[in-house]
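Re: [ENG-882] Designed sequences occasionally contain unexpected residues at chain ends

Forwarding the minimal case from QA. Structure tokens:
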């Protein structure tokens, strides 16, 4: 398989285990206290879940690189932050009653599969030891998070005349398209596209502060003793 195409598909393949779909509905009290590494409201992640996630995450680095203890610690810290962030977004989805339907998932799958002959698509899962269902579950979570970000952040961003003016200046610093811009201003489709692009850019700029505030909304518990053990292992 073409390595570029393979890497693009791997981008969509599960980096973490499907713990969110499994443990989010389970009773945290049924697990032993020393097994739980992270808990966000009713969602839990065990040390074993984290170990599996780390194993997948390490495959993105050359083997000799992950022998470096400093890099390994950085990878673990980054992974912990990503997992907590993901659990927060899933929790927010529950609060906002946001769900992902089967047709939405299938549409996303079909879009991804377009560039791959069926045998190459299936072959990639075998090569990465990931089942199609696991990958599909991961894709569902990814779509869910995107919907939360769009609903709670992007759609709430106000676009001003100054934003639109700045957009045109960035796209056309010499002003050579000024007349075209004036003509396009009255076209609903063009306006919608511009507004969408501006909102997306502003959402990217505001994301860090937004997720920081979301962290304050939920009870996040980390087993510090277990986490220190993982960091130093």
């Amino acid at each position: 398989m073409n390595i570029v195409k393979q890497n693009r598909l791997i981008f969509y393949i599960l980096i973490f285990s499907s713990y969110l779909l499994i443990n989010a509905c389970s009773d945290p009290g049924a697990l032993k206290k020393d097994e739980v590494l992270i808990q966000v409201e009713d969602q839990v992640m065990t040390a074993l879940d984290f170990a599996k996630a780390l194993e997948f995450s390490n495959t993105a680095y050359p083997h000799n690189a992950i022998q470096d203890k400093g890099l390994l610690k950085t990878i673990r810290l980054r992974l912990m932050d990503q997992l907590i962030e993901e659990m927060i977004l899933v929790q927010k989805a529950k609060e906002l009653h946001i769900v992902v339907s089967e047709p939405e998932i299938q549409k996303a799958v079909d879009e991804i599969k377009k560039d791959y002959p069926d045998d190459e698509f299936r072959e990639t899962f075998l090569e990465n030891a990931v089942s199609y269902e696991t990958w599909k579950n991961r894709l569902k979570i990814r779509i869910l998070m995107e919907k939360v970000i769009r609903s709670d952040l992007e759609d709430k961003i106000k676009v001003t005349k100054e934003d639109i003016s700045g957009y045109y200046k960035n796209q056309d610093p010499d002003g050579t398209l000024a007349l075209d811009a004036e003509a396009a201003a009255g076209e609903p489709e063009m306006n919608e596209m511009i507004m969408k692009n501006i909102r997306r850019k502003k959402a990217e700029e505001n994301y860090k502060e937004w997720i920081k505030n979301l962290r304050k909304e939920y009870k996040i518990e980390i087993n510090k003793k277990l986490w220190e053990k993982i960091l130093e292992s």
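QA comment: On inspection the terminal residues look reasonable. The domain at 3-232 is CATH 1.10.4030.10 (Triger factor/SurA peptide-binding fold). Proposing we downgrade this to a documentation issue.
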